[in-house]
Amino acid sequence: MRKIVLSIVLCFFVALVSAQISLPKVFGDSMVLQRNIRIPLWGTATPGSHIVAQLGNRTVKVKTDKTGKWMVHFPKFNAGGPYILSVAEAGIPETKINLNGILIGDVWLASGQSNMEWQVQQAKDAGKEIASANFPQVRFLIVDHRNEVKPQTDLSTGGWEVCDSNNVKELSAVAYFFARKIHADQNVPIGIIQSTWGGTKIEPWTSREMLLTSPITRTETLNADTLHYNREDVIRDSLNQVRFWDIVYNPQNNTDKIVPAPDYDDSGWTKIDMPKVLKDFGIGDYVGMVWLRKKIALPESFKGKGLTINLGHPEMNYSLYFNGKEICKNVWYGNATHSYTIPADLVQPGENTIAIRIAMLWGGGGLNPGTDIFITDGSSKITLVGQWLYKKDLEPAIPKMINYQGYPTVLFNSMINPLIPYGIKGFLWYQGESNAEDAYNYRKLFPMLIKDWRRRWQQGNLPFLFVQLANYMERNSLPSDSEWAELREAQTMTLSQPNTGMACAIDIGEAGSIHPVNKQEVGRRLALIANKMVYKQDCVSSGPMYKDFHKEGNRIRISFSDIGSGLSTSEGKDVTGFAIAGSDKQFHWAKAVIESNEVVVYSDEVAEPVAVRYAWADNPECNLVNSAGLPAVPFRTDDWKGITQR
Questions:
Q1: Which of these CATH numbers, 3.40.50.720, 2.60.40.10, 3.40.640.10, 2.170.190.11, describes 2-108?
Q2: Would strands 555-561 and 464-467 be described as parallel, antiparallel, or unpaired?
Q3: Do residues 457 and 613 make contact, with C-beta atoms less than 8 angstroms apart?
Q4: How many DSSP H helices and E strands does the chain contain?
Q5: DSSP 406-451
Q6: pLDDT tens, residue by residue, 166-211
Q7: Alpha carbon distance 589, 575 (integer Å)
Q8: Domain ranges across the chain
């Protein structure tokens, strides 16, 4: 009898153990589910078991397949909540999973590279923005970095957060400012799923099946089939990554104690004019730590005063030292401003020593040109522009990493596929910087990604809103070719895809930083597009878009759409940003005049003009806007071969 009872108990225990329900990590407490669609929910359980799921007062049931997989769809919900979601195997209450605090609203998937990943704590006025971030009906889920050679069914980690001052710091600034405005304008809960990775091209975000359909990506994708993660490679790369960031964040060989000292012998160092990006000084593709030093003479009046030093906008990770003492340690995704206080007890009349330890990574590193660098006591200012000294290789070499995230499809596999088919309202996308040298092919690559994602979500032509690349780099004095201009053109051409919208950012970038801090305006402009295109509000959501041109003697007249109540210029100045060319294809800066909501363009140097370009540069000087103050979208009237068309 004892054996029989023990067998029954053991069987019951085994049944309980095997009767486990699992939900993907995209589901969790405090999540937002998409309103006005049949809400998908899926997971795994015991093969052949019956699943009962309840959301609010609505219940759905399904039987798992032979592998234990199951999926249900709740009927449509209006915006609201909070609700409890419960899932259990029928008749086994011990298997029940409860998810609490769930809201029904609009969910947006925000993806792309570093300008979408750039955090709220790095944005303009970060302290103020974080302190005021109290939006309990805005929720977000940040997908952890992960890359895989095969499609994954679940995220590596999960966890929805409620938007408040404690949680908002690491959220995408663009997505946050978008969500904040849409929540205020539409009065519905907003969910953001953030899946981003800085420095990535578009190919890793696209599925293998889609990449194989194009001759542009087919060969590279097939070559990537030889990519295999084996234990030895993964361990070695993981250790290299640890060592990589250990060197970047922590000075080696006691350099932080030795090199910043005023009496350190830098007589063998190389002279360099600052501000300058180091790669422009001939270091090339060097990756590693570089030290900068400068001696400055301070007047007697500075003695006993706390000073302010402004470094403009240094690239990447850096530490600042004054007379041998560390003043700041700014790490990747760190400060949005680069002004620091020098304590009074470090200041001495006469000679003082400034030292900067700076990481040169992926072409960055240095004090960006076009920025003001100086030291001041509040009334007198001493410039730091001019000759500095620099030295590399004072610390161990940074190990090379495989950077698997650069391979085709690996980010789709691990950071997008596990999200499908979670119900969403649409997509937010900010990417393209890493594809600039291949801008011509981006005309095909970007629509491929949009079609790929829409097909897989099976919610029709979901809204796809994206940001056009902002102005960046040094400004050219003459009209010239530009990879970034061609990438922007490829983005504009993508508006031919249905239900797409583009936020132009040509006026809010920074010459010295690929990561401009004014993410508030980027999010606002995306929200304007959503308000008009998705939520059907009557508003001006885009800047002037080139429509047509016709020639009038030695002049060309340009017409636009999206002008609102008319064209003007920012700050009321003369129109800038136009260039004009004849059949010789040599462009000259043009005069431009607004006439009857059109722009007439001409140049005394071009008697027979055939083509006009506007804002066609890495960092153009341009100021045409519509009545809403939104900038005109860069364009060209010609179709001459560009520098990225091979």
A1: 2.60.40.10
A2: unpaired
A3: no
A4: 12, 36
A5: GSTTHHIIIIIGGGTT---SEEEEE--GGGGGGHHHHHHHHHHHHH
A6: 999 999 999 999 999 999 999 999 999 999 999 899 999 999 999 9
A7: 11
A8: 2-108, 160-227+404-534, 249-392, 545-636
